[in-house]
Amino acid sequence: MLPEETLEQAALLLRILQSRGLTLATAESCTGGLVAAAVTAVPGSSATLLGGYVTYSNEAKSKSVGVDPALIARLGAVSAEVAAAMAEGAARESGASMGISTTGIAGPGGGTASKPVGLVYVGVALAGQPARVEGHVFPGDRTAVRAATVATAFRMAAEEAASVTSAGKSV
């Protein structure tokens, strides 16, 4: 159901997480669960993935992973700060070692001059630490934007996980 390259990225991330004794949770908006779907397509993922939240609505972002509604009201759901809060909340609410978040405008509509179609923020947070967030404007249609977002999430999570020693400490 998912491209082979995406499944390979998910498998690589799982190997890195497992080698460091880390667990994972996701909070996804624009990807609608694709990050978690790719992870669960890999045999043995249940030892690492604790849960996934599809937080498509602003209310779900607040209720499921604890994003402050005032933050969303002030900056909008598509912002670096909300992506950070989503990643941190996914880890906190699930008890996972790492949270991944995605929020953006996949299109074809919904874009504005300041937040165009293709604008996406991806967050990765190690439990108890501030999230690292990247913002991108991905080209292409809805499918291409979502695929690029998933690939970015896996790359960022693998980088963060690689910075953790097998004892669970960041290096």
TrEMBL record:
Q: Which Pfam family, an example, fits this chain? A: CinA
Annotated ranges, domain CinA C-terminal: 10-159
Xref: Gene3D superfamilies: CinA-like
Question: Which superkingdom does the taxonomy of this entry point to?
Answer: Bacteria
What NCBIfam families does its record include?
PncC_domain
Q: What is this protein called?
A: Nicotinamide-nucleotide amidohydrolase family protein
